[in-house]
Design goal:
The chain is mainly β. It is built from no helices and 10 strands.
Amino acid sequence: QRQLQESGPGLVKPSQTLSLTCTVSGASITWNNACWSWIRQPPGKGLEWMGAIAYSGSTYYSPSLKGRTSISRDTSKNQFALTLSSVTPEDTAVYYCARVNTDDWGQGTQVTVSS
C-alpha cells in the first residue's frame, strides 16, 4: 500500500523559510516515470500546484512561485522535500505531497505563517 506523509513545522514566521518533507512508503521515488509533486490549498481557495520532482531528479516549478520554491530529494530515505523562502501570511495553507497522475496523496499538513 502506497503512503505519503508530510512533515514539518505548523507555524512559520513571515520572511522565514518553510521546509516540508514528504516520506513515501510502498513506492520508490526513483521508479521509472514517477513524478512527485507539492500542492497547497489556502483557506477558502482552490488547489495550487507548486512544483514537482521527477524520478530522474529533474524539477519543475510553478511560474508564480519560481524563485521562492525549491524541491529536492533524498533517495536513501525515499523522501522529497519542499522549501519556500520569504514566506508571507498569504502562504498559509494546507500543503500536500502527491504522486502525479495518481490518487496517491498525503493527508496534508497545515502551515500557518504568522508572527
